Amino acid sequence: MKTDDASLQALAADLGQRLKAKGLKLSVAESCTGGWIGKILTDVAGSSAWFERGFITYSNEAKLAMLGVRQASLDAHGAVSETVVREMAEGAADWSLAQVAVAVSGIAGPDGGSPEKPVGTVWIGWRWADGKVTSRRFLFVGDRESIRRETVLRALEGLIAGLGS
């Protein structure tokens, strides 16, 4: 099933209502989505009440400088890893005024995959208001656009599920 922009916009609006009701702010740290999560969130009128900022950290250097990801983590695990995405989520919250953060790092293709990390491998990390960090690995199938779109979808769904009603 292809997710359309209207579905993403509805999720973003729902997320915004939940964040606002709880008095929470959100930051995002994006690699493979290149700002798509921040864009879909700020498409929601009134998002300044709950969206704090976004970090587009496509390069490893940006992850180090903007989010405090450790060089040792990148060296040992690579940018597309649980360790790095968790550090990205923590950095997005710690280096902003947000209590909640989501971070994504993946291989959208068509090149760049390996047997260990094929194209479509994506890690998403969520940092919650209580300081807890959760993460999940996904393996999406499709072209570059569909992998990136599915990443945005799953990031938003994870935030909504984690925040509850």
Give the spatial strand order of the biggest sheet. Answer: 2-1-3-4-5
Share of helix, binned: 40-55%
What is the total tally of β strands?
5
Choose one word for the global shape. Answer: globular
Order of helices and strands: HEHEHHHEEEH
Biggest beta sheet summary: 5 strands, mixed
Stretches where pLDDT falls below 50 for ≥5 residues? none
Number of helices: 6
Approximately what portion of the residues adopt beta-strand conformation? 15-25%
What key attributes describe this structure?
alpha/beta, globular, 165 residues
Care to describe what's here?
The chain is α/β, with parallel strands linked by helices. Helix 2 links the parallel strand 1 and strand 2. The protein is globular. The chain starts with a helix and ends with a helix.
Task: Briefly say what this structure is.
With 165 residues, the protein is an alpha/beta fold.
SSE diagram, text form:
Layout (H helix, E strand, L loop, with lengths): L4 H18 L3 E5 L5 H7 L8 E6 L3 H8 L3 H7 L4 H13 L5 E7 L14 E7 L5 E7 L4 H20 L2
Parallel strand pairs: 1-2, 1-3
Antiparallel strand pairs: 3-4, 4-5
Helix pairs in contact: 1-6
